[in-house]
Design a protein that fits this description.
single chain; alpha+beta; DNA polymerase, domain 1; 5-stranded mixed sheet; DNA integration; 10 strands; 4 domains; Integrase_catalytic; about 425 residues; 17 helices; Integrase_recombinase_N
Length: about 425
């Protein structure tokens, strides 16, 4: 065990070895830093209590500075020297007593608000409050086993998508429980639980279906069965490939019609620029603006956006005879349309705001028309030669036309 004056510089200078070791401070007894083979460093306090050597973890270097760790170690050491002070015993008692409900509350109040978007926060809260809390109730965090998690996951087999999302949330909570010292390291009980298969639903509209949708939108606009803003929202969603929330909450200050851009300050993948076609620009130019309301898709209440687009969409798709089409399928249709006109996955991914090519690659199978067209061109070209003439024996012979004839001639000459 090495001895150093623990400072930022000395901690960073400690060498990484194949085996973890502890370097203790020269000034504060028991205050040390453990260097792991991975390169991570953890502050700790070691002391003796009733003849036993005990250690208490203070925190990881980087998250906790050397100065803060020294201050915390001094406080804990003062407690050890008191009448009933035993930080390790207090820690163990807390570990044993923390319930799953308490872990969920800490997860939702300390972790989620600062690291997740509002929509993600709502989904996490739903998983915790509707599924995890009722199942685990007052069970202690340290007592949760893989069998418990598998049982919880299996109880939601009738809603497999939700079951998998809830399992993911629980796994994150268990990882945090390890970080917070409530569970031992590398004991996440979710790791060996197999998720339910999920069928990716990639629906897109054919040209005929697009025509029917267009007619339904026009009818809703003419007969005023839906607001002009709801109709505009669906048209913009289809023509830009944007996500619902990006258009539903779009503000005019983020619209630049001269540059033909939407400059979104936030989205699922962060800030992004959406490039607009001329049709979308013309649509936005004719959409009425409401004084005092910053939103493009104006809601019924003052200064608000339209909060419910699901009910209008159900009515419109019913009129169009497209009852299985979701709003998000308009985004799929935009992606497939890009493939149809010959755009590559990289360009489509840029238009959709994807950060990874793999995300865009799943759209590649949506539009089979280009492949069918290629197959038709090839087969038609071959058939032209194969069936263009028939000799007296009734056997079809190729005529001299194009590359096929040249290939045949070359073969004959070579022979």
């Amino acid at each position: 065990m090495a001895k150093i004056k623990i400072t930022k510089r000395s901690v960073e200078a400690l060498k990484v070895t194949p085996k973890d070791y502890i370097a203790f401070d020269t000034d504060l007894p028991g205050f040390g830093v453990r260097v792991m083979p991975s390169g991570k460093r953890f502050f700790l306090l070691q002391y003796r209590r009733h003849g036993r050597t005990r250690r208490v973890m203070i925190g990881q270097y980087g998250v906790v500075t050397a100065e803060l760790a020294r201050r915390e170690a001094t406080i804990k050491l003062g407690g050890v020297r008191g009448a009933n002070g035993d930080p390790a015993a207090l820690r163990d008692a807390e570990r044993q007593s923390t319930t799953m409900k308490e872990l969920g509350e800490r997860f939702l109040t300390q972790y989620v608000p600062t690291r997740c978007k509002p929509s993600t926060e709502a989904e996490y809260r739903r998983s915790v409050e509707l599924f995890l809390d009722p199942f685990f109730a007052k069970q202690h965090v340290r007592s949760v086993t893989t069998a418990d998690v598998a049982e919880m996951h299996g109880s939601l087999s009738h809603i497999p998508y939700q079951a998998n999302r809830t399992l993911g949330v629980l796994s994150k909570m268990m990882n945090l429980a390890e970080t917070w010292g409530i569970r031992d390291k590398h004991t996440n009980p979710c790791e060996d639980v197999e998720r339910f298969p999920e069928l990716k639903r990639e629906r897109f509209l054919s040209p005929n279906e697009l025509q029917r949708l267009g007619q339904a939108l026009t009818a809703a606009e003419v007969h005023q069965t839906e607001t002009k803003y709801a109709v505009a929202a669906f048209r913009i969603l289809l023509l830009t490939g944007c996500r619902l929330s990006e258009i539903q909450r779009l503000e005019w200050r983020h619209v630049d019609l001269q540059q033909k851009e939407l400059r979104l300050p936030d989205s699922k993948t962060g800030a992004k620029t959406v490039h607009l076609g001329d049709t979308v620009v013309a649509l936005l130019e004719t959409l009425p603006r409401v004084a005092g309301n910053p939103y493009v898709i104006v809601g019924k209440n003052k200064k608000t956006h339209l909060t419910d687009l699901q009910h209008p969409w159900r009515r419109i798709r019913e009129t169009a005879g497209l009852t299985d089409v979701r709003i998000h399928d308009l985004r799929h249709t935009f992606a497939s349309g890009g493939l149809l006109v010959g755009e590559g996955l990289a360009m489509i991914g840029k238009l959709l705001g994807h950060t990874q090519v793999q995300t865009t690659a799943r759209y590649a199978h949506l539009a089979s028309d280009p492949v069918k067209q290629a197959a038709t061109k090839i087969s038609d070209r071959l058939a032209l030669a194969l069936f263009s003439s028939v000799d007296t024996a009734g056997v079809k012979q190729p005529q001299n036309s194009g590359p096929l004839t040249e290939d045949a001639d070359d073969t004959s000459e070579a022979a």
